[in-house]
Amino acid sequence: MHKLLLAAAALPALAALPSAASAQSLADRAPALRDAALEGDTLAWDLVEGLTTEIGQRQAGTDAEARARDWAVRRLTALGFANVHIEPFDMPVWVRGEERAEIVSPFPQQLVLTALGNSGATPPAGITAEVVAFNSVAELEAAPDAAVRGRIVFVDHHMMPTQDGSGYGQFGAPRRQGPTIASRKGAVAIVVRSIGTDHHRNPHTGVQTFGPGVRPIPAAALTVPDAEQLQRILARGLPVRMHLILTPRDTGTHQSGNVIADVPGTDPGAGMIVIGGHLDSWDLGTGAIDDGAGVAITAAAAHRIMQAGRPRRTIRIVWFGAEEPGGLGGAALYARHHPQDNVVLVGESDFGANRVWRVDPGLAPANAALADRIAALEAPLGIVRGREPADAGTDLGPWVRGGVAAVDLNQDGTRYFDYHHTPDDTLDKIDLAQLRQNVAAWTALLAAAADAPEPIAGLPPRAGP
């Protein structure tokens, strides 16, 4: 009740008394700005609802992603952001085709699956082969080539939900490395258990890239229930034959791009803060949690700062293109703007729309006081301070590896991999109260960092891809 009264009191004061508010710095007003976002932000919902309703799925390099960029420019311009523009880049584009699978013997039945990014294709009529199963990528790698050659490989695993999503790195190996290993050993195709924590009959797609010189083979993800069904069939000890049709294709080089918008600062020498998420999505759902929510959250927070007054540091919003095929938009931004842009801090929202539960201030020791102020501002939102090094995600990670400071606002990922890369990634999965908590967390961070009086120091460069 106290927080509600505080927010209600803060809103009219900011609106009716701009001259009095301007006497205080944005950093001083950070608690009131945070609480106002928590109690009443509507912009983030309007943005993600508009993006998913008016554009829908936005696969990188396609006409749908191009429509999303144009939509983004119109919306960000109408909101009053400065320097709104698109920075295009070229990319190879892969699209899916027909996707069907069935057990031919010993127990004929249909299976539900989807092609993994960059999958090779079967002939139009498909292929039929015996299935050979492995419990892990390591088991597949250790198998003699003769056990794999001419067969359809099935790799199983069991990804469990975690709050920080840490299982994705470990259990993503069947999707990321499995197709290359299977092809090198002579497999005619590979199917993996979806990299997901749900038991819905929805497959999880995702990118994989065949290694240099490796022949692309058909590669797909089974739904979790279908993978478990196949596991039970194999446990009967009889030879299992599968018929598989996958007809994806490469369509050549097309254009993607990053959408950029600024909240201009008053002190160019103080450096720039870059935040954002990715505009593209996989084609199965409408990309609400991955990552319509992220672009909406960061833009809504930056808009609140812009409406409250001009910060010391410019805040740059980037809605990245082509993150899903491998962070192409992030790489393009870094190549174009580093080192000439004086970027001093980065942060990305790309883990859904559930509440932020932990803040990791990845700042230099010289900025310990700023890290403390950020953590203190986040604490009333139920956000604990972590001690992990901030990585700023796929798209802004290059800046961190180049020595730029970052702050990670970590969302609760316990249920994220129920919907990630599936047809179920839709607007109804977003809870408005949790979305507002995200905007409040980002508003607090931006108010503290963009208006911090001290310099924001760099860090030693890190190794990484």
Task: Explain how this protein is built.
This protein has 465 residues and is an alpha/beta fold. It has 2 domains: 2-93 and 253-450, Zn peptidases (Aminopeptidase, 3-Layer(aba) Sandwich); 97-247, 3-Layer(bba) Sandwich (Glucose Oxidase, domain 1). The protein has helices spanning 2-16, 18-22, 30-40, 43-54, 63-78, 137-142, 145-148, 167-171, 173-176, 178-184, 224-235, 288-308, 328-337, 368-378, 393-401, 416-419, 432-450; strands at 82-95, 99-105, 109-111, 113-115, 127-134, 152-155, 189-193, 219-222, 241-246, 249-263, 272-278, 314-320, 343-348, 356-362, 384-385, 405-411. Helices cover 37% and strands 23% of the residues. The chain starts with a helix and ends in a 15-residue tail after the last helix. Mean pLDDT is 94; it is low at 1-22. The chain has an 8-stranded mixed beta sheet with strand order 1-10-12-11-13-16-14-15, sandwiched between helices. Strands 3-2-9-5-6-7-8-4 form an 8-stranded mixed beta sheet, with helices on both faces.
What's the gist of this structure?
The chain is of the alpha/beta class and 465 residues long. The chain has 2 domains: 2-93 and 253-450, Aminopeptidase; 97-247, Glucose Oxidase, domain 1.
